[in-house]
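Z., the sequence and structure:
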Amino acid sequence: MDWPFTNKKKWIGWSKILVALCVLGLLIHRISWIDLRNAVVNAQHGWITAALILLAPNLYCQFKRWQLIVRQFEAAISAKEVVRSLFAGITLGLITPGRIGDLGRTVFIPGADWLGLMGLMLIEKWYALLVVYFAGLWGLLPFLRATLRPELWVPVETTGLALVLAGIALALHPAFLNYVLKRFNSSGKHKRLHQVLNGVTKLTPRVSRSLLFYTVAQVTVYLMQFYLLIRAFTPLPLWSGLSAVAAVMWSKTLLPISLGDLGIRESASIYFLGKLQVSEAAAFDSALLLFAINVLLPAVAGFAVLMKSRVLQSPKDSMQELM
């Protein structure tokens, strides 16, 4: 009998089963279900319902971005396969710092160039960082103005804004980006790196604009969801509330060191929202509910995808897939 990890296909199969079990363990042990229940009980449910409804456009924006990427490689891929891989990626991202496991969604696209897909996904992540940092610069502005002298905060904001705008300009002109990346690996010695960079060459101006549009739309929806959840616990002006949650989003993106961003988002919420006289309990509960709606619910769906693809099969089918 062969050792199951000597074959690459077997190794991938067993790894996915292990990941699925890790996700299940995380959902059971790392989430404070008591805090989550108390947050729901103490909130005004109308605001929570509104935030929950916005999960649909949030996921739709993620779906469209991923579909754009996948169809650069597999034009005939079905929407069902795109959705399945998207939710699986959300689940894998839950158990990794900075959601790096989200890149694993490429494995669930049958017959696709995984490394090429990862190349375009990295560009998509870069777009998301640019948009989040742009929103964060706006969100941090009132806090910087309140704590720093103008000769300190003005250069910080100006430099940050210039870098973000330069990044956006580069993102909207993929031909130059492709040229730089080709020069970076002009020798072609690193085959896998060449495959990743080759994926980036499929980026066209139309795809770039669409990716950026859906990224901006998703971040906007996210900010509104967070604001609505805060309103479920306490009154808060719209403009200053959105500014604070943009600063929170920037902070948790800058420090992707925990699984599913647990703890970072809640701590940043308490700090920035506390500056607006929002109680610690309201800040913590709203951040926890945001995690439950935007990450936990889709991750549970993704867990079902993982289990169905590897575990919830007949023993014969499972063994054939792992052979």
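Residues 1-5, 311-323 have pLDDT under 50 and may be disordered. The radius of gyration is 21 Å.

Let me know what you think.
H.
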